Structure formats: structure tokens, C-alpha cells
Amino acid sequence: MKLKQERRHKLQLFNAILCAIEEDITINKTARPTRIQHYSRLSYDKMMNHFIELEQKGMIYRTGDGLVSITNKGKKFIKQYDELISLIENVGL
Amino acid sequence: MTVLDPNILNPFTLLDPHISHLISLIITIASISLSFIISWHFFRSYRFSGFGYLLGLPVGFTFIALSFLFEHLSLIYSNNDLAYPAFFWIQLALQSEALALIALSYRFKNNEDAGQYNIGDNLLTSTERHQIKTSVKRDILSSSLPMVMIAIPFIVPISELVSDPDFNYPALADMSFFMRLYNMAIFGYIFSSSVLSLIKAANIRLLYIPAAFAFLWLEQYSLTITYFDNSIVAFIGSLIARLAGLTLFVYVVYNVTSKQRRRKIEIEARKKT
């Protein structure tokens, strides 16, 4: 039986990736793409495409050795996203 | 003993004239501040997400804030035969339009949820096709509802103005009664939508917002009582209900920001384990 996975909104995907980076940095001091992929439950190719977009938006930056880091703009995004979801949930929308 | 005018427009005129302006000013400042706080938070969320259905809330609460301003202005100009009914008329129209906009947010969100199914056309059985046709008919009927909701607070006051350009006080008072009935119906819709949504999300403990809408419904109900018997007690009750509803709303909005800290605590806890 094929399980249908709910399609995620782009904001949701960005948030999943940024949270995964933040969590990985908090726990392991560094964020590696494989671990981010594990946390965010995305395919590697899709995740790399989102990395490019997030980098262009200035929310993350990648170092030469493949490690990923989150910028202040990225942290602000997570905060705003949490606020949005909380607000929508609380208001019953 | 003075006999009260049976067609009072602004109920603040029922209060002692020496204190009515001060009380109105305090209540208006508090109501406008609370409404703008709510509006600002929803506007920020809309700007961040770009979700169209969210726009009804900030615009709606801005309209509500403006309606409170016009309510106070109508009291200030209560001796002016033109400004008094004009400001009262604007207040009624703005308030009802505001509620219609808030209700639209809930309406469009429900539509969005209902439309989240993807079925390949070639895989449909005849029964499924029939079900889709029925749901399309239902959608057409239900899509006209938002237009009706928006049109009523616009058409009713305008028709009143067109039929009687000199602002007939008793007719305006009657219009205010019907508009308040409309407001109560809209609040009923918003209340049921928010409760159903919270129950679906198994989020029953977050009943603050439905409670806030219930308070605002109570405000309208108290105002209809005031329309019938010019009761000061009912009017004061309506002011308390209004402030309680708006305060509860602001409390929820502020509570949202405190949730941010909880996530950091969760990550820190995971780090330690």
C-alpha cells in the first residue's frame, strides 16, 4: 500500500531545513548536509536545490568543507515562522 | 427626571454628560490600541507568509479600530445635527464590514482546506465524478456567500443614506439594530469556524480565541438590549465585554511570542540527553 505524504509548503520546507541546521549546530557544533537531510526528511537533490535558494536569500552560508551554517536572517525566519504557525493554530485558522 | 430619547444613536449619550466624554475617550483609546496591536500582529504574519486568507484579519481589526474612533467622534459632535448621525452611520458600516472581512479569512481558509485533494481524472469512477459535480455546485453556492457577507454592510447603510439623505434618527437607530443582528450572526459564524478548526486540530485547550469572539458577540447582544430599553447597565456590560474580548485576543497574540522560547528549551534538553 502506498502511503500518501502530505505536500509541504515552501515556507514549511525552508523552516524544516533551517531548524535542522540550527539543531545540528546546537547538538554537534557543526551542520552537515547528510544530517540536515535526516532531520528535514527531504531527498538529497531537493535539499541541495533549497540550499541554493536559501543561500541566495542570505539565510544560510556554506563553507568550503561542505559544512552549512545559519545566518541571523535565517534565525529570524525560524522565529517568524514559529510565530506564524502559533498564531494560525491559536486563532483556529 | 429627564425622559430618555427612544431613538438614541450613540449609547454613550445615556451616561452622565459630565463624565460620558471622559469615559468614551478612555474606552476608545483602550479599544483602538488593542485593535491595532491585534491588526499589527496579523499584518506581520500576512507579510511574512503571503497567505491571502490572512489579510482579512489585519484589515478587519483596522476597520474595527476606526469604527471605535468614529463612535467617539459621534459623541463629541452629539449636538451637531449633521456630524452626529453621519459619524454614527460610518461607525456602523465600518464595524459590520470589519466583521465580514474577519469572517472571510475563516471562510477562505475552509475553502483552501476543502480543496486539498488531487485525483487523476482518468482514474475516477462514475460515482466519484458525480460526487465532484455535486461538490462543484455546492462550491458555487458557497462561493457567493462571501460576496453576500461583504455586500450587506455596504448596501444596507448606503440604501439607508439614499432613501433618507437627511439622516432620520429613528431610521438610523433601527438600522443600527439590524446591523447588530447581522454582526451577531457573523460572530456566530466566526465562533463556530474557529471552534471546529480547533477541535479538528485537537487543540481544544486553545479556546481563548473563540472565547474572545464570544465576548464580542456579547457586546453586540448587550447593545441590542440597549436599543430596546436604553439600559445603562446593558451598555456598560457591552463595554466590559468588548474590552474583555479584545484583551483576550491580545493575550493570545502575546502568548504566541512566548512559545519561541519553548523550542530553544526543547533543543537544549535534547542536547543534554
Low-confidence stretches of chain B: 117-121
Q: Which oligomeric form is depicted? A: heterodimer
The CATH architecture of chain B: Up-down Bundle
Q: How would you state the average pLDDT of chain B, rounded? A: 82
Instruction: Output the number of helix runs of chain B.
Output: 7
* Fraction in helix of chain B: over 70%
CATH C-level of chain B: Mainly Alpha
Order of helices and strands of chain B: HHHHHHH
Radius of gyration of chain B: 22 Å
Overall pLDDT level of chain A = 84
Biggest beta sheet attributes of chain B? none
Number of domains as seen in the coordinates of chain B: 1
Strand portion of chain B = under 5%
Query: Which regions of chain A contain 5 or more consecutive residues with pLDDT less than 50?
Result: none
Strand content of chain A: 5-15%
Assign an overall shape of chain A.
globular
Shape of chain B: globular
Largest beta-sheet characterization of chain A:
2 strands, antiparallel
Kindly identify the CATH topology of chain B.
Rhopdopsin 7-helix transmembrane proteins
| Number of E strands of chain B | 0
Q: How do the strands of the widest beta sheet of chain A line up side by side? A: 1-2
Written overview of the protein:
The complex is a heterodimer of chains A (93) and B (273). Chain A is mostly helical and 93 residues long. Chain A is built from four helices and two strands. Chain A has helices at residues 10-28, 33-40, 44-56, 72-91; strands at residues 60-62, 68-70. In chain A, strands 1-2 form a two-stranded antiparallel sheet. In chain A, helix 1 crosses helix 4 (72-91). Chain B has a single domain (11-112, 138-272), classed as Rhodopsin 7-helix transmembrane proteins (Rhopdopsin 7-helix transmembrane proteins), CATH 1.20.1070.10. In chain B, helix 3 packs parallel to helix 5. Mean pLDDT of chain B is 82; it is low at 117-121. Chains A and B meet through helix 1 and helix 4 of A and helix 1, helix 3, helix 5, helix 6 and helix 7 of B.
